[in-house]
Amino acid sequence: MTMTENKSTSSGIQPYMPPLVLFLWASALKWLLIGLGVGFLASLKMHATALFANISFLNYGILQEVSETALVYGFLLQAVFAGCIWATAKLGNEAPGLGHVSSIGVFAWNILLTVGVIQIFINGTYGLKFMALSGSVLLGLVITSLFIVLPWVGRLLNSHDDNKIAPSYLLISLLVFPMIALPGGHFLHSAGITGVIQNVISQWYSHTLIFTLVPLFLMGILIFLVEEDPTVKGYSKSVPTASLWCILLGGFLGGLYHGFPVGGAVNALSVASVWFPAFGCVAIFLVLFGLANTNDNSHSVLNTFGLKWIAGGVMLALSLNAIASLESFAGSFGLTTFKPGLEQYILFGSLLMGAIFLIRVGIKGDFKPSAILCFSIYFGSLICLASYAIEAIAGNASGLRMNVAGLLVLFIVSVTQVLSITVACITASLGAIKGCCPAPQSKSVEKSKLANA
Amino acid sequence: MNHPFVLLIGAILSIGLSWNTLIVNPQKHFGQLTTQDEIPKVLNGQQKQGRQVYAESGCVKCHTQQVRYFEQDSKYGPRFTVANDFAGQDKPLLGSHRIGPDLSNLGNNGKYTGGDGRMNLYKTLFHAKESQVMEGSSLASLMPRHYFLFDKVELSSLAPDNEYSELARELGETAGLEEGHGYIPSYRAEVLADYLMSLKLDQSLFVAPIQESSEE
Q1: If you ran DSSP here, which 8-state letter would residue B101 be given?
Q2: B142/A331 Cβ within 8 A
Q3: Sign of torsion, CA A336 A337 A342 A347?
Q4: What kind of fold does domain B36-198 have according to CATH?
Q5: Which residues 44-63 of chain B have a CB within 8 Å of chain A?
Q6: pLDDT value at position A28?
Q7: Chain A environment of B127 (Cβ under 8 Å)
Q8: How many domains are there within chain A?
């Protein structure tokens, strides 16, 4: 038995990264860098207020909007697609190449997004969260996303693995974007709706992308890893199932906050529903950590540093979001940079970590991303989070929007974010480049495993 | 996969439920508001153009136009905002976070009304030097400078009775231009100012009456 075989059998995952998935990762990383670069320029403008003051399309609002759009549509969604396709392909022992029909979708997605970003530079932004893209580009993205996801949705629906929960999570994660962007885009842009309902649509939409899709996806991948790990025994299916429904039923209802100008019962319900995903996650992580501590196999997925961080990170972010929604905190946290800070924490801290983690698994077949790397990313994210909280609290306590603490904090935030994420990106991309030439023995391992089964 | 269709139908139903609760339901209440109802704002042509400039200049990423019912927000307006305030507007500029102050009631801000008000507004847009919002502080403001909303001119080319000649000299100095040059507001800055001055929360509504005590 070679080293590789040893590793693969202990983890249950073959070290191989299909070209289609790599294509998606590479595109996602490209947009991550664009989003961070542009976001960094935006935050520089806060310190150097005369920067680009003569150039109308390089104003703070546009730069910030382009950065958010690049991060959400370029990085987040493509990373989610990549992760889901990676896991689905593993489940079916497939290795989709660049000739796969999904590649057309990925290609078109990136072209459309580029067009959309140029439009933002020209038309500016109305501040509808994550919905600055024009109606036609958004519709285009929905259509291309169908090319990307439908082949894999079909595979998941036809699989006969009745004992697994991960496919359910993956299925919903693949479908969330087209299912919300189609009605959202239609009603926002072409149904003649005006007034504050348009803001409701974008709040609903952006909340679903960050606080429903990301947890579903990350938990789907975690459960996938657990279920593929032959050393895990005594794993209960009912808690992950209950969590899934918790997130589904509660997650989509969130988005409005105390004081949002629709008022009344709708507002209250939406605020309360933020707790459902938090409960869902708490339940599932109790099970995962329980498993991790009873399993004495050191190779177990659950005993790795990176995985614990991902799990802890999502749980922390969802609970903080739920707590910040309470009326007693809402005045202090709503409309400050705290909420976007949380979102970025989830995006960067957890998703990026998840990405690196997956790439490691794809290339080496093991579950051990460098502890220092994990730590530095999370440390960076935590500092950001803490500083957002200071900004929110200090800013309000003194009755001011911005004060010395706020200024300092903005500076620390931008610097730490950019540093920690750049390090992570470089590491991940280096890993991805190495993965371009898959080890030939991995296929034979796969075959021998198939033959055994 | 275990019961894939139960799952799919469940997902569609839960999205449908949220859609119905959050969007269809409020739309029934607020979507039909017309000018017959209490609507404080109807923009004229220039103000509409100004609103467009506001969007193109990205102001919405730093400034909100919503006053919530919390104590912290009471300094931004005499009452909180409700759906009526945005009735009939396409893509209301509510904003989602406040790096600068809320602008819902800017049109009633003493600094920008009255004789020099308009010029003060241009100065703030051009370069909000020290933070005025933080009283007694000497910190630089975080608000970016918007030179792009102004046109560079030679001071000698301005007619002596030009309303902007004093402003032009001052802005030129602020920007560190050489002697004899200055900036005047472009058409875009003028319509933007028209729009900003139209932002007022002075109509008492049945659902959101004006709080007498919170008047300055």
Answers
A1: -
A2: no
A3: positive
A4: Cytochrome Bc1 Complex; Chain D, domain 2 (1.10.760)
A5: 55-62
A6: 87
A7: 49-50
A8: 2
pLDDT in tens, A319-328: 888 888 888 7
Per the domain annotation, does A227 fall within a domain?
no
DSSP SS3 for B183:
strand
Could you tell me which of A411, A356, A404 has the C-alpha nearest to residue A378? A356
Tell me if A198 is assigned to some domain: no
- pTM (2 decimals)? 0.88
Q: Does A63 reside within a domain?
A: yes
Last residue of a domain, one of A163, A193, A223: A193
B140 pairs with which residues across the strands?
A: B130
Among A193, A222, A240, where does a domain finish?
Answer: A193
How confident is the model over A303-347, as pLDDT tens digits? Answer: 666 666 667 777 777 888 888 888 877 777 778 777 777 777 676
Residues in chain B closer than 8 A to A274 (CB atoms): none
CB contact under 8 A, A60 and B61: yes
With a cut of 80, say whether residue A245 has pLDDT above it.
Answer: yes
How far is residue A193 from each of residues A180, A196, A199, B25, B210, measured CA to CA in Å? 17, 9, 11, 13, 28
B80/A contact by beta carbon, under 8 A: yes
A247 has pLDDT over 60: yes
- Flag whether A283 is in a domain: no
Of B1, B66, B94, the CB nearest to A157: B1
Give pLDDT tens digits for B63-90: 999 999 888 788 889 999 988 888 888 9
CB contact at 8 A, A335 and B96: yes
Structure tokens at A392: 């929110």
**Residue among A61, A157, A396 whose CB faces B61 most closely:** A61
Cα separation, A216 vs A347, in Å, equals 13
> Which residue of chain A has the CA closest to B62?
A61
> Which residue among B72, B86, B148 sits closest to A331, beta carbon to beta carbon?
B72
Full domain range(s) for residue A349: 336-441
| B4–A contact, CB cutoff 8 A | yes
In terms of CA atoms, which chain A residue is nearest residue B183? A54
Please judge whether A400 and B134 are an interchain contact, meaning their C-beta atoms are less than 8 angstroms apart.
yes
B96 and A335 within 8 Å at the Cβ level: the answer is yes
